[in-house]
Amino acid sequence: MTMTPDELFDLDSLLNDEQRAMREVVRRYLDAEVRPYLRAWFGSGELPARELALGLGELGLLGMHLTGYGCAGTDAVSYGLACLELEAADSGVRSLVSVQGSLAMFAIWRFGSEEQKQQWLPRMATGEAIGCFGLTEPDFGSNPSGMRTRAVRDGDDWVINGSKMWITNGSIADVAVVWARTDDGIRGFVVPTDTTGFSARDVGDKMSLRASVTSELALTDVRVPADAMLPEARGLRGPLSCLDEARFGIVFGTMGAARDCLEVAIDYSRSRIQFDRPIAGFQLTQAKLADMALEYGKGTLLALHLGGLKDAGRISAAQISTGKLNNARAALQIARTARGILGGNGITLEYPVIRHMNNLESVYTYEGTNEIHTLVVGQALTGEAAYVG
Questions:
Q1: Of the candidates 120, 136, 137, which has an alpha carbon nearest to the alpha carbon of residue 128?
Q2: DSSP characters for 351-375?
Q3: Using one digit for the tens of pLDDT, what is the confidence trace for 33-56?
């Protein structure tokens, strides 16, 4: 008798019927519409993001944890489980959903005017309109307070100048939530991407997140009306709260990539014959698989616990950082170990492990680097902010 990693921890017993049903719907969709094409998408560095967004929107996955405006209004655990399944397919697919729902849509839903919500959220929920989130700049990643993008009032309008880097969905987006420095501090703006002076180009030569659209945004005298500003967002607290939403999805998503790597490694070890026996029968292989399963199980249990805290309205930013720090690190190590178990086959796209491993190198860094989340946890424990000069 064998057990799957999920069975080893009896994870299903922690979910309700609706959560299990939603997870199965997502799995079936990914098996039919995404997994058969991932090897080609990653190999070519292209993703049919617009077509994919429509399918994901039809399932109700875009902004699924938001309420109203055509959004599904699911609980946090259900959203996390969807992220887990999406990233078990590919981190780039989960990133499309995270940026759409937890960054661009959440920013408008939480901080926007009623007019902004009505204009954008229903179409974004269906995937008819795609959004991106313009915070990170070429010289300011971990330190967003240093941003140089600036918005200046000119009569009844705002004029925005600056650039943003590593922007998922950037070149295909219909709307960008752009954060800029003003005389009143950092503010957010809802910018239609067909506005004069707005341009985006894809980042080339990526070895990670190749099945994802990653762009650089340039804003040159982009003129938007006064009501383009997000009225309820002032200072960095606005964009950072959006990042917490996205990081929550990463806590679950990384465990999806980890699970896929672990399952592939287990299956491979049973069929790979060396010295006249499957390598699954060797103690060193079993030790690796056992350690991988423990890290996957602990990470998933942590994600589910944080999901429960979020649903209860009790989660903190430090707790989300704890989950992102642990799970991104654990998933990357699981992927690397699985790659080793597969030997030479582990570096080919015939198996998904090297794709997950390369993707997780980005996930390990984005939405706050491993080092920054380490210091966030350190500050929570000591009361001292070590990353402030």
A1: 120
A2: SSHHHHHHHHHHHTTSSS-HHHHHH
A3: 999 999 999 999 999 999 999 999
Phi-psi region of 163 (alpha: psi -120 to 50; beta: other; left: phi over 0): beta
The DSSP result for 221-275, as a single string, is EEEEEGGGB-TT--STHHHHHHHHHHHHHHHHHHHHHHHHHHHHHHHHHHH-EET
CB 344 within 8 A of CB 299: no
Fill in the amino acid letter for 219.
Answer: L
Closest CA relative to residue 268, chosen from 247, 282, 255, 250? 282
* Pairing label, strands 157-168, 150-154: antiparallel
Yes or no: say if 78 and 64 are a contact pair by the CB < 8 Å rule.
Answer: yes
pTM: 0.95
Q: Residue 376 contacts by C-beta under 8 Å, 6 or more apart in sequence?
A: 317, 318, 321, 325, 368
Domain shared by 218 and 242, yes or no: no
Tell me the CA end-to-end span of the chain in Å, nearest whole number: 56
Q: Are 269 and 294 part of one and the same domain?
A: yes
How far apart are the C-alpha atoms of 114 and 355, rounded to whole Å?
A: 41
* Integer-rounded Cα radius of gyration of the chain: 21
218 and 267 co-located in one domain: no
- Decide: residue 13, CB within 10 A, 0-12 exposed, 13-18 middle, 19+ buried: exposed
Q: Can you give the residue range of the structural domain that contains 97?
A: 5-126
Q: Which residues are catalytic?
A: 367
Residues 225-236: tens digit of each pLDDT: 999 999 999 998
Question: Which has the closest alpha carbon to 190: 148, 243, 127, 129?
Answer: 129
Instruction: Judge whether 347 and 339 are in contact, CB under 8 Å.
Output: yes
